[in-house]
Amino acid sequence: MSLEVVKNEKLTRKDFTSDQDVRWCPGCGDYAILATLQNVLPQLGIPREKYAFISGIGCSSRFPYYMETYGFHTIHGRAPAIATGLKAHRPDLSVWVITGDGDALSIGGNHLIHALRRNVDLKIILFNNRIYGLTKGQYSPTSEYGKKTKSTPYGSVDYPLNPTALALAAEATFVARTHDTDIKHMTEVLKAAGEHKGSAFVEIYQNCVIFNDNAFTQVSDKQTRDDLSIKLADGKPLIFGKELNKGIKLNQGSMEVVSFEADSPPDDLMVHHATKDDSVYAHLLARMEEIPGLPVPLGVFRAIQKSTYDEMVQAQVQDAIEKTGPGDMEKLLNSGDTWIVENKA
Amino acid sequence: MSLEVVKNEKLTRKDFTSDQDVRWCPGCGDYAILATLQNVLPQLGIPREKYAFISGIGCSSRFPYYMETYGFHTIHGRAPAIATGLKAHRPDLSVWVITGDGDALSIGGNHLIHALRRNVDLKIILFNNRIYGLTKGQYSPTSEYGKKTKSTPYGSVDYPLNPTALALAAEATFVARTHDTDIKHMTEVLKAAGEHKGSAFVEIYQNCVIFNDNAFTQVSDKQTRDDLSIKLADGKPLIFGKELNKGIKLNQGSMEVVSFEADSPPDDLMVHHATKDDSVYAHLLARMEEIPGLPVPLGVFRAIQKSTYDEMVQAQVQDAIEKTGPGDMEKLLNSGDTWIVENKA
Amino acid sequence: MTTHSEANPQKKTEELESVVIRFAGDSGDGMQLTGGQFTNTSAVLGNDISTLPDFPAEIRAPAGSLPGVSAFQLNFSSSEIRTPGDQPDVLIAMNPAALKTNIKDVHHGAIVIINEDAFIPRNLERANYESNPLEDDTLKNYRVYRIPISTLNQNALVDIDISGKAKDRCKNFFALGMMYWMYERPLDVTIEWIKKKFAKNELVVEANIKALKAGFHYAETAEVISTHYKIQPAQLKPGKYRNIMGNEATALGLVTASTLAKTPLVYASYPITPASDILHELSKRKNFGVKTLQCEDEIAAIGAAIGAAFGGSIGLTGTSGPGLALKSEALNLAIIVELPLIVLNIQRGGPSTGLPTKTEQSDLLQAMFGRNGDSPLAILAPCTPGDCFHMALEAVKIAVKYMTPVIFLSDGYLANGSEPWMIPDYQSLDPIEVKHPQLTSEKFLPYLRNESTLARPWAIPGTPGLEHRIGGLEKEDVTGNVSYDPQNHEKMTHLRAAKIQAITQDIPDLEVLGKPEGDVLVVGWGSTYGAIYSAVEKLQKQGASVSSIHLRYLNPFPKNLESILGSFRRVLVPEMNMGQLAMILRAKYLIDCQTLNKVQGQPFKISEITAGIEKLLSSTHEVKNVARSR
Amino acid sequence: MTTHSEANPQKKTEELESVVIRFAGDSGDGMQLTGGQFTNTSAVLGNDISTLPDFPAEIRAPAGSLPGVSAFQLNFSSSEIRTPGDQPDVLIAMNPAALKTNIKDVHHGAIVIINEDAFIPRNLERANYESNPLEDDTLKNYRVYRIPISTLNQNALVDIDISGKAKDRCKNFFALGMMYWMYERPLDVTIEWIKKKFAKNELVVEANIKALKAGFHYAETAEVISTHYKIQPAQLKPGKYRNIMGNEATALGLVTASTLAKTPLVYASYPITPASDILHELSKRKNFGVKTLQCEDEIAAIGAAIGAAFGGSIGLTGTSGPGLALKSEALNLAIIVELPLIVLNIQRGGPSTGLPTKTEQSDLLQAMFGRNGDSPLAILAPCTPGDCFHMALEAVKIAVKYMTPVIFLSDGYLANGSEPWMIPDYQSLDPIEVKHPQLTSEKFLPYLRNESTLARPWAIPGTPGLEHRIGGLEKEDVTGNVSYDPQNHEKMTHLRAAKIQAITQDIPDLEVLGKPEGDVLVVGWGSTYGAIYSAVEKLQKQGASVSSIHLRYLNPFPKNLESILGSFRRVLVPEMNMGQLAMILRAKYLIDCQTLNKVQGQPFKISEITAGIEKLLSSTHEVKNVARSR
Ligand SMILES: Cc1ncc(C[n+]2csc(CCOP(=O)(O)OP(=O)(O)O)c2C)c(N)n1
Ligand SMILES: Cc1ncc(C[n+]2csc(CCOP(=O)(O)OP(=O)(O)O)c2C)c(N)n1
Ligand code: SF4
Ligand code: SF4
Ligand SMILES: [Mg+2]
Ligand SMILES: [Mg+2]
After folding, report:
1. Final residue of a domain: which of D360, D394, D423?
2. pLDDT attached to residue D115
């Protein structure tokens, strides 16, 4: 029952498009993510019927309806748990969890961290629009401190959660970030997630035009994005800026920006390695979004290999069968102290 | 309604001892924690009636019954949420949450991280015995990988959660660890937690004699504990060992142990600063318990100051009253478009 | 603007008793707002009113699509009315999708006003129209007014320096202006509202007001609409009124209760349709000492409310069906520790996520029984938007007096519906007594009960000398210590039940609408009130032997319920569920209640109740006849 | 060891039909184990048996304290028995606390065996004895044997090289040995068990066996106990038997169902008393393809089970009351997406955390109604430990055939109680049919129903061409697409109800114990079976006009229930709750069921049921007389 990767070159985006009308608001970032994923899946070489999309509740969680795959629009916050059960029973499937910042981090925070720490082989795609879209605009756990929304007319007093930091604390084996306005980057990241074996956690900055428009100009504004964000490339130093003239250095455990002449970076810049075993380096990346002056990192923070929950669960079953033989029902029923009552006659 | 710290020197441990028989198993580590806390509270100078102890379910969660304070033994996993409501309404109280590794990290993981990220002024004391005690010995989220228990006769396949790393990912403002066999250390740590303003998270390694005996010999065995654990002291380098001849150095973001002649430590050792604003350093400490060869850190990992949720909630109320005057019920009832229907007569 | 009716003497005026209008358009067309304005204006004018908004499930489904249609129905009248009306007399359809989804509800002969400009091929296709309904016989049974609203509106705003798109967004005010002329409404309430609402943008204020006036003048002047109608003010009970929606009234009731009880409110909630507006409302009331916590989930929310109640506040949480399911374990904690707690449940279509934006009454059994163990609590249900205020007060009163959780069962229809509401005189409201015991010479016993209410004392942290512990394990009678004693458990189980039963002493007797005995008794609860009342009243006028009672206290029941039930030959229970109250009544009183169930996410029409009663009446006659012929 | 009865000819042998023994001691004293050994030995000997363990709530409360007492009662007999017995004939009290908490249940004249060594001042104080009960008249009505068990045991083990503490831990085997002599049981079953259990430690094996034998010989030789008793084998139905506990039988039934259905089992659970043992049992069955997931909470557990069911496994979750409350929201998801799911709920005392180690039947209404919206599902309840096997099979059968969640309502008494169980012949069990559709030329419609069962097809991921989406929003009939259509919602609500009703076709008719009509019908469900059966049988022998039926299918009910109810003048419903089944019966059949409620965390005694029936019988006679005299 392990994942058969059958090359099936003929599948295209259209094969992954269901007959249901897409019902997000015009201009919603969800459209771009949908289109990108419909493009990425055929590239993974997995037969269409082996995909299952599991979502919670939220605008983003309507996603499975639009995918011509097996799909399950479940209940608020529980998709990681439901997907864990599915994957534990069916390691042969490619199981994707589609969730929002409210769904994954508010009501569903616990299931998320437990799926990640168990390294269940799920692709968890978090559409982070920093707002509750479906319930019409209350602040979410990723909304900035002081945010004024319908439920916080005086501004929120909750400090936000950092999704990638949380995923790393749970020891997720794959952690990445991308955003809905860069199709190419999104394609790369989603493909890498799809190819990762183990829990893959992808945060996608997603614009909610209706209730939180322009929340991500830092990465989407063409004028400034190159100076305010940084794209991670494995084995490459952390360099960014429109002119590629800025880099990031570690100084006593703290990160700082250094400027240099384009094309001649200093050699004490931090070098990106997504495959570092301990999570401390990736944790540095996760904290960058909070530190004023540092660019927002985009790309794969971490990608390491560890046995997955589902394969270990499966292996225990196979081991037991190998060691003791397949279960014998007669024997099991008759185990323990037994005795026979004879027919009196 | 802010916390009145009234010096009340006359209180003693006995004043904090309730009339209920303590019903833990003989030899359980919970006894030592109870005694220590009953000793610490009188030192905090808070009137007894201002203390409230809120717990979930588990052996550890029976704790409030034994304290002569206000107490609430609630339901499994929800103590942080209940305590948040209490503290939001009553910033004047000193509210303590008593929880276990199952209560706090399994069913209650989400409430825990949300209480911490909001910086609710709660003292959250997690009795980590790496097992479910009350339900008679199933593995918990902190049990080591491969653990054989009643529910995992073939060994568990879940990778454990790291409580301090999780607390730090949630940006807890106070994170510490101590253990049930070192009364002096436990006293210091609990006192520091009690004096901290904001969410204080304390992990206590607690021995469950019945279902997980000797889980913490690393810190409790007199022969080896000095070499296998390290006590953190603010402003002091990270030095440990029976002979105080080992230290910890940071090398390219990774920690390593260096040995030296006693009394002449090299000066590139890491120096402990619990008050660092960004959490990266504390995160290094949190990861130490997982890295073979490194000692287990004990003490206060992090202690920083940030406005608390409860005081901000309270401040919004006071601000509103100051700005618009105390609510006028007549006016509120009569707001909006109104009209009068005259008596026909 | 008050002499308008004289302006065009060619047009005739007719007087009507009541009119049902439905505004329908795309989610982006502002129909809720338009309906709301018509409502406020009509209310201020003194009509009785009742409204029914119908939101799409999607935030903003693709423009012009069927799922994107948003509608608002209101009934306004010179006599007392109790429902938003069975069928619209006037439908305003801003696009083909709006026409398609709404025309089936409109009675023949009704007026249909159409924004002709929107009936272009692309929109027709989005609405799944094969041919243009304006050109086939789809509308042959209606009085159709085809008006190029978009164009007229654009023309009217030609001089204003805002984008064409922004201008188009004013077209709902153009339509509203037309309706104001048709029904002789003044413009000033809406003009004031526009000024306040768009205060930050002068041009938008100007544009909207201009559109409103242009619509009014167009209707007055153009030869399209020839008649306008007068609806006299209704003879409501004298007093000061405002228009109020159910969720708003609920929030207002809670703040009032808190003020009356001199005890601050802590509202902990997790957003969910259709309850979220209560959170939004209460979060504005900080100067009343109200604290609102938006929690990480429903369980945390009820937890926080319980924690706050332990600390001495009025602890509140609010949600809808799926959220109530999640709260059930913690609700039981509040039951066993006997703390006051108010749980608002604004019901919606179920099971599971179900129909989030539609109304239903299907959480009654969940409220009664949805917990482990025998776990009684009090249940109240408001019956009109305005009654939400009163029942919210009652909920708080009962919770603090009896130290018990109270479930307040509203629903989507009440939550978003509105009606004129006589503003109560705050000074004349009864104070709510809250007592927190202090140290006395006697030993403090946390489960020593008040003899009449059976409530335990509400001692709160911070009180010197009353330190005590409570928890979810069974408690020993009087002391509250943990107890596994068999007899004690049985005793406590009975005490918990008896305490809830004791609330009966504070519940007013039911009033029968109609004769105190007869053939058929209609028993309703919650939001079906208006439809049942109207149907029963109508049949009574026709001489039918039918009466009705309406339950707003569902656990415990009012004292006189049993005797009333016994005074009728047949009992009919209309519910927006599969017969939940009927089941409880049958079990409790062994009466063969008949059910009349509607599970469509829509409130009952008067005619549906009337038909149900008539059917039962006629079968009752048969039964009588059979009985006689025996 | 088989000729023992001859060994001491001075001692006399009496023959008894049945005996009720209760072993009671400190949690550390191994009373559960001792009781279990006596049970197994008696079972193998051919007696009928029934057991009732009574655990303390604490893991290990302080030694010698009242809350630390652990007890195990068993009834063994030469005739058929159905309960662990109302009152012990023999109490073994290993310390003062055990005496204190148990003596009140023992009938006068019964034997009380006392470990004299434990009655030292410290222990007496811990048990709150003011004076030594061995020296005052506390025990004057009993036949008391004071035996220095600790000392005798230590003496017996003097030669074995283990600590004194370790020796003391063998004293329960000494006591067991004495009882084996008293009731003429062979030692070999226990000796074998000791050898296996302590295989890793030879000295412990030796010590325990020695203690057992020493106890036996002491009883035989010393002049203290003068009589021993013979209890002939019972005439059980011929066949092969084993002793089985309810949770064990449940797990066995599930594995059997999975094997019969050729579909792997996924059991996702979160530990909770008294359900955890099912997780423990199933986790050993990996070679049957069983996967067990210990999840982070109850919601995750039901979620994982639903996910596994979506993937085509038999999805199972198990819990107790508070956990069922937490699962209620997700359960509704399974209802609306119509996936098979089995939810085991092992009831315990409520509300809230309540009495975790005590039994109760108070989750029936929660199981029926504890969800938002109208949300029907199937409910089954086993009636004896062995019946758990059968009903677990039934649960799986119904779930996969009707594509529905099934709640299996066991309780603490069944879970931990045991009885001899005739091992079924695996080959003769009916196979369970599971069908997953494959691609055909027809369009796949996920909500196209089977005409007879109304079940939708169970198409699973991985099947080429059947890709489809399900979810918690209301679904369109046949296609399963999201639908907000009012009529469709009503239709689907009715279809969901009709599907559950359709299960009736697979439910066997109820059998009446006794005459098919008469004065009183006793209606039971779940674990009250044994007590009701015994009481009814006894009264029938005395000529009373009483019969009984026992419901194992609670939703839907068996077809012939209504007609049986109608054949009796009065109906009595004994339940370990406040009348939950009675309420449903009253509502459904409008029959004035009388309730007989016991909410003490303890199963009914036969005498309590007998008294209840007698009371109703006499009032029935009065009614009859009144009727006659009219
Ligand atoms: C149990 C439950 N609680 C609450 C809700 C209401 N609800 C639906 S979606 C949502 C939050 C959506 O936010 P997010 O996950 O960020 O998704 P988005 O709509 O922004 O994509 C909430 C609170 C629900 N459906 N179910
Ligand atoms: C809702 C609910 N689920 C499950 C349980 C059963 N339960 C009680 S305590 C516990 C775990 C205890 O583990 P931990 O928190 O580590 O506490 P410890 O007993 O080890 O101190 C569980 C699973 C419960 N009481 N309530
Ligand atoms: S509300 Fe926001 S997130 Fe939801 S569909 Fe609209 S734009 Fe997208
Ligand atoms: S089971 Fe373990 S944790 Fe619980 S009281 Fe006993 S020793 Fe302590
Ligand atoms: Mg969002
Ligand atoms: Mg633990």
Report:
1. D423
2. 96
Q: Which of A301, A312, A314, A324 to mutate to test the interface with B (most CBs of B within 10 A)?
A: A312
Q: Which residue of D has its CA nearest to B23?
A: D61
Residue C91 and residue C147 share a domain: yes
Looking up residue C569, the CATH number of its domain turns out to be 3.40.50.920
CB D593 within 8 A of CB D615: no
Contacts with B117 from chain A: Cβ below 8 Å: 141, 158-161
Extract the tokens encoding D589. 């059949």
Q: Compute the count of residue pairs across chains A and D with CB atoms less than 8 Å apart.
A: 217
CATH number for position C41: 3.40.920.10
A278 SS3 class: coil
Could you give the CA distance from residue C602 to residue A13 in angstroms, rounded to a whole number? 40
| Residue D286 forms contact with B (CB below 8 Å) | yes
- In angstroms, the CA D513 to CA D548 distance is 5
Q: How far apart are CA B71 and CA C310, in angstroms?
A: 10
pLDDT category at A3 given cuts 50, 70, 90 is very low
From B106-120, C10-24, C428-442, the region with the lowest mean pLDDT: C10-24
In chain B, the domains with their CATH numbers are 13-215 (3.40.50.970)
Q: What is the helix (H) or strand (E) element at residue D415, kind and residue range? A: helix D412-416
Q: Whose CA is nearest to atom 1 of ligand 3?
A: A133
**Cα torsion through D412, D417, D422, D426, rounded to 10:** 40
Distance CA A191, CA A172 (A): 17
8 Å CB contact between C60 and A210: yes
Q: Is D221 on the interface with A (CB under 8 A)?
A: no
Mean pLDDT across D36-64: 89
User: Is the domain of D274 the same as that of D219?
Assistant: no
Tally of CB atoms within 10 A around D125:
12
**Measured at the alpha carbon of residue C305, what is the angle toward residues C304 and C311, in degrees to the nearest 5?**
90
Name the residue of A31, A103, A138, A209 whose CB sits within 8 Å of the most ligand 3 atoms, as the mutation to test its pocket: A209
| Per-residue pLDDT tens digits for D384-409 | 999 999 999 999 999 999 999 999 99
| C87 shares a domain with C162 | yes
Asked if residue D537 and residue D624 are part of one domain, the reply reads yes
Instruction: For A241-275, write each residue's pLDDT tens digit.
Output: 999 999 999 887 788 999 999 888 998 899 999 99
C-beta of B24 in contact with ligand 4 (< 6 A): yes
Chain C within 8 Å of D590 (Cβ-Cβ)? yes
Query: Are both C188 and C284 inside the same structural domain?
Result: no
Helix (H/G/I), strand (E/B), else coil: D367: helix
Residue C239 placed within a domain: no
Q: What is the mean pLDDT of residues B81-96?
A: 98
Contact criterion met (CB below 8 Å) for A52 and D461: yes
Pick from B49, B86, B327: which is nearest to C307 by CB?
B86
Closest partner CB to D474 (pick from C354, C365, C486): C354
Longest distance between any two alpha carbons in chain C, whole Å: 88
Q: What is the pLDDT of residues A127-144, one digit of tens each?
A: 999 999 999 999 999 999
Mind giving me the DSSP string for D99-137? HHHHGGGSPTT-EEEEEGGG-SHHHHHHTT-SS-TTTSG
Q: For B197-241, how does the pLDDT look when each residue is reduced to its tens digit (9 = 90+)?
A: 999 999 999 999 999 999 999 999 999 999 999 999 999 999 999
Task: State the DSSP code for B245.
Answer: -
What's residue A306's pLDDT?
Answer: 96
Please give the span between the terminal C-alpha atoms of chain B, in angstroms, as a whole number.
53
Helices (H) then strands (E): counts for chain D: 20, 22
Could you tell me the residue range of the domain that residue D173 belongs to? 4-230
Q: Is the pLDDT at A4 greater than 60, yes or no?
A: no
What's the rounded mean pLDDT across residues C393-419?
97
- Taking contacts as CB-CB distances below 8 angstroms, the residues of chain B near A273 are none
Q: Kindly state the tokens that stand for D284.
A: 């050993």
